[in-house]
Amino acid sequence: MRAPKKSQPPSTGPDTFCQIISGELAAPTVHRDGSTMSFLDHRPLFPGHVLLVPLEHVTTLAELPPAEVDHFFRVAQRLETAVERATGADGSLVLVNNRVSQSVPHLHLHVIPRRFRDGLRFWLGPRRPYASPQEAERTAAGIRDALDLTDLTRSAGPPTAAPE
Ligand SMILES: [Zn+2]
């Protein structure tokens, strides 16, 4: 029996993945630990297409609490290996969509088995080259200005010096 729905802002409602995490919806599960869970995508690009989600609801990768990031990506690494081994794949595609192309508004990392010549080339195009090296440099500078590395221990020191 379902509890009556509480009125909530749309962004915090129980999305499909929260429902899988709570057990309200079934999904073929790969693993579950104290903070993450992985299961099969119900519309796989290829068989063995796995989704890794944090149990705690967040929408984008940037919203994943810093204390969770290390574990989340360590599990992602293990899934990369497991998916490739289990499916006999040549490699894999690991990706996160943030808002755009994000079908469920709950952070999920795709681990997709890949084979050479598997026909998935559309994922990589079309490409839009920079008009000039200057335009590329301006673009990099804009991202540098926007990049906040404060609180990251490895950014606290001076830039790495060349070996003497
Ligand atoms: Zn959710």
Characterization of the model:
It is a single chain. With 164 residues, the chain is an alpha+beta fold. The chain has one domain: HIT family, subunit A (2-Layer Sandwich), CATH 3.30.428. It is 26% helix and 16% strand. It contains 3 helices and 5 strands. The protein has a 5-stranded antiparallel beta sheet, with helices on one face. A hairpin with a 3-residue loop joins strand 1 and strand 2. It is globular and about 50 Å long. Zinc ion is lined by residues 15, 17-18, 57, 106.
The CATH architecture assignment turns out to be 2-Layer Sandwich
Number of domains: 1
Name of the CATH homologous superfamily: HIT-like
Q: Give the SSE string.
A: HEEEHEEH
Oligomer: single chain
Instruction: Kindly state the percentage of residues in helix.
Output: 25-40%
Individual helix count: 3
- Large-scale geometry: globular
Please report the first level of CATH classification, the CATH class. Answer: Alpha Beta
Task: Name the strands of the widest sheet in spatial order.
Answer: 1-2-3-5-4
Please report which band the strand proportion falls in: under 5%, 5-15%, 15-25%, 25-35%, 35-45% or over 45%. Answer: 15-25%
Structural class: alpha+beta
Low-confidence stretches: 1-9
Q: How far apart, in Å, are the first and last alpha carbons?
A: 70 Å
CATH topological fold name: HIT family, subunit A
Number of strands: 5
